[in-house]
Design a protein that fits this description.
The protein has helices at residues 8-14, 60-74, 94-111, 164-173, 175-179, 184-191, 200-209, 221-233, 248-257, 277-286, and strands spanning 26-28, 37-39, 44-53, 78-88, 114-122, 130-140, 155-159, 213-216, 236-240, 270-274, 291-298, 303-307, 310-313. It is of the alpha+beta class. The strands form two sheets. It has a seven-stranded mixed beta sheet, with helices on both faces. It is globular.
Length: 327
């Protein structure tokens, strides 16, 4: 198998097909594209999500916090706490552990999230530091939002710009290479795109307006997220490529590195299904969050990207472009 997410066909036949136990307390079960599981919890339902950081060894404490916080936010829930697993390769320095925890605790204080515990070790099983986070959230009973809630006729809204996380990672990881082709100002701006990685406020505004589906755009980029939301919801989609918001810095970095920006990891951008697309965009922009209606859901299973006169069908998510940069 290739580096990156397991292909959907493998996920279905080798993982999901084997999950035969379905407990009645579980309100949202494992499924394609679902960011979270939801458990009954009295007046509040409990929302759980877990994710590792594997695509980079730079700023992994910050990235690990945001990827899980964004998953919980995509359900509409309030994040309460996190469990951390940190595994270092041999000969790692304590300073790296301190940096990870400094970043994690700074963000935990910002968002009032408790670090509940976890596990830390050094192991020959890894070649670079691995951080995995499990998030725990809560939401009023019966109000959790799923990736699979999109309905035909509803609008598709994208917040901020796609490719944010990948752009920041690439600018830091390949800075010297990029400097040969791009101005320093573009590279510096690209590196600083990690300031936009949270979608917590995006989700709060969306919940106030009213939504049926939310999905944070992570590995596999916006094309992967569109496929996952449509597949989870059992609907088709039509999306105008030219309406997908993307920064010029992202386009230029991807041109130099010969990768597709629409298949690039995009934490910081939220894909939302709603019957109130224009209103949602207006409310997001009033909160200082750029957003755009990019398409809509349709009956059937056709997942179509429109680029002028060209119409092409989306394919199931593949390995993220972050892993396809030629050395």
């Amino acid at each position: 198998m290739e580096i990156g997410k397991i292909p959907e066909t493998v996920l279905k036949r080798s993982i999901l097909k084997k999950l035969t136990v379905k407990r009645p307390e579980v309100l949202v079960h494992s499924g394609v594209g679902e960011d979270c599981s939801v458990l009954e919890g009295g007046d509040y339902d409990i929302v759980l999500s877990t994710d590792p950081i594997t695509g980079t060894a730079t700023d992994i404490g910050k990235l690990a916090f945001y990827v899980t916080a964004n998953d919980i936010a995509s359900s509409g829930a309030e994040l309460i706490g996190m469990l951390l697993t940190i595994i270092f390769p041999p000969n790692s320095k304590e300073e790296e552990l301190k940096k990870i925890m400094d970043d994690m605790t700074e963000l935990a204080e910002t968002y009032n999230v408790e670090i509940l515990g976890g596990h830390t070790e050094v192991s020959e099983a890894v070649r670079q530091t691995l951080v995995s986070v499990t998030g725990v959230g809560r939401i009023e009973r019966g109000k959790a939002i799923q990736t699979g809630g999109l309905k035909p006729g509803q609008d598709l809204v994208i917040t901020k710009w796609v490719g944010l996380e990948g752009t920041s990672i690439l600018a830091k990881q390949y800075e010297e290479r990029l400097q040969k082709r791009l101005p320093d100002a573009i590279i510096q701006t690209a590196k600083e795109m990690d300031q936009y990685l949270s979608v917590i406020q995006d989700a709060r505004v969306a919940m106030q307006v009213g939504v049926s589906a939310m999905h944070d755009v992570t590995e596999g980029g916006i094309f992967g997220a569109l496929w996952e939301m449509a597949a989870a919801s059992g609907v088709g989609i039509e999306v105008d490529l030219k309406k997908i918001p993307i920064r010029q810095e992202t386009i230029e970095l991807c041109e130099v590195l010969e990768i597709n920006p629409y298949l690039l990891i995009s934490s910081g951008s939220m894909l939302i299904g709603t019957g109130h697309g224009s209103r949602l965009v207006k409310e997001l922009e009033a909160a200082g969050i750029p957003a755009a209606v990019v398409g809509f859901a349709t009956q059937g299973n056709d997942r179509v990207i429109i680029n002028g006169e060209e119409r092409r069908f989306l394919e199931p998510p593949k390995s993220d472009e972050l892993f396809h940069v030629k050395e």
